[in-house]
Design goal:
The chain is α/β, with parallel strands linked by helices and 397 residues long. Helices cover 23% and strands 30% of the residues. α3 (89-100) crosses α4 (119-131) and α6 packs parallel to α8 (233-240).
Length: 397
């Protein structure tokens, strides 16, 4: 899975080798070698962290930037706990302009307790918004001791509440049934089997990392490796379950084929003879990657445009379509649509927002076909309205 990663402060090289390659790694540090003298597997990605204010030095920030091939930075670990980062909201916000100046993609501080009701996270996000500070994704921690299935579903429900509060991509940078000694391997295994498919299915969950490798107060339960570093039953489950994420059927779904008038692999139609209003660009930011789709006409007047892909020969059944989108300006109606699948057209309104938000819907294909596209109508071009779309997905459920 492209989402799955691991923290490796504990366990060392033996545990890294024992678990086997993961997509991404972090160790609560700006430097991959700071906490443990390890060599990560070839092809993996290290994501650095500034753990608390002591990491906010020029040397460590430069080191974090140099050690981040994805240009991504995790920030302030559990600032709501005195024994962890132990930082006030105002202190964290005071460092944020320095972090933004790196140009890196920034994760929020990760709070220790129930993120959806955390007053620390709420006050931080409100303060960031009030100051115009950029927070690119939300980092969450979860340890909900109890019945594994019930607690897995409670975690998913809380993740959904967090997304609905902040409308930003989510990374779960620590999670297990319990951090301590109050679980068994069977309970952790059932929790993992219940929650992993749900994390894979949520399109706004970008990454997750299980806690953790070996050692600690109850290594036999939540650990993915044995104390000698060899992989154990839970680690094997983590590596192989679920086996894969559904394939995205859309071509050039992130518009990364490059800047062009009509996006590669997409079709353009306009009843107002203005097909030139759709193109790919990097101006004003993307949800991910280097480009996004734009519907915009740099002159007054009314216009419309449809950018779409057609699918035939589909297996009948349930499909999910989604995209990250935003719109701006009066007199514009834009929507991500699914139609011609054997049922009524499903149209998802593109939100008027300065930040990308996820729109998602489902259709039940009964005729082996479907059309997925962005439809925009402008009735008052004097306000220079536009719609942006990025990271579109169409997958079989």
């Amino acid at each position: 899975s492209a989402k799955r990663g691991i923290s490796y402060w504990i366990g060392g090289q033996a545990a890294i080798d024992g678990l086997g390659p993961q997509t991404w790694y972090y160790n609560w540090s700006p430097d991959p070698d700071t906490q443990s003298d390890v060599t990560l597997p070839a092809g993996s990605t290290f994501v650095p962290m500034v753990w608390d204010e002591t990491d906010m030095t020029t040397e460590k920030i430069n080191k974090a930037k140099a050690n981040s091939p994805s240009n991504t930075l995790l920030t302030f670990n559990e600032p709501d706990l005195a024994e962890q980062a132990g930082m006030s909201v105002s202190s964290a916000l005071s460092f944020w302009p320095t972090l933004m100046a790196t140009g890196m993609r920034l994760g929020s501080p990760a709070v220790a307790f129930t993120p959806s009701t955390s007053t620390w996270l709420r006050d931080f996000m409100q303060g960031a918004a009030a100051n115009g500070y950029r927070v690119d994704f939300i980092c969450l921690h979860y340890y909900y001791t109890g019945d594994p299935v019930t607690k897995a579903n409670e975690v998913i429900a809380d993740i959904e509440r967090v997304y609905n509060l902040y409308h930003k991509p989510i990374w779960i940078t620590e999670f297990a049934l319990t951090w301590g000694s109050n679980s068994t391997v069977a309970q952790e295994s059932l929790f993992m089997q219940t929650i992993l498919p749900k994390l894979e299915a949520l399109p706004y969950v970008e990454k997750y990392a299980w806690w953790s490798l070996s050692n600690g107060p109850n290594a036999a339960a939540w650990s993915l490796t044995n104390t000698d570093g060899s992989i154990n039953t839970l680690g094997t489950l983590y590596n192989t379950f679920p086996n894969a994420t559904p394939a995205n059927l859309l071509a050039n779904a992130g518009f990364e084929a490059g800047a062009s008038q009509t996006p590669a692999n997409w079709i353009t139609w306009s009843s107002t003879n203005t097909p030139d209003v759709d193109y790919t660009e990097s101006i004003n930011g993307n949800h991910s990657g280097a480009y996004h789709l734009t519907h915009y006409r740099g002159q007054t007047g009314t216009w419309n445009c449809y950018t779409y892909q057609v699918f035939n020969g589909l297996a009948n059944g349930s499909y999910t379509f989604s995209g990250w989108a935003r719109a701006n300006g009066a007199g514009i109606v834009s929507q991500l649509e699914a139609k011609d699948y054997g049922g009524a057209k499903v149209a998802l309104p593109i939100p008027a927002s300065s930040a990308y938000q996820l729109v998602q819907g489902t259709v039940n294909v009964t005729n082996g076909s479907c059309t997925i596209g962005l439809w925009t109508v402008v009735t008052n071009g004097s306000n220079w309205p536009y719609a942006f779309l990025d990271d579109v997905s169409f997958v079989k459920n």
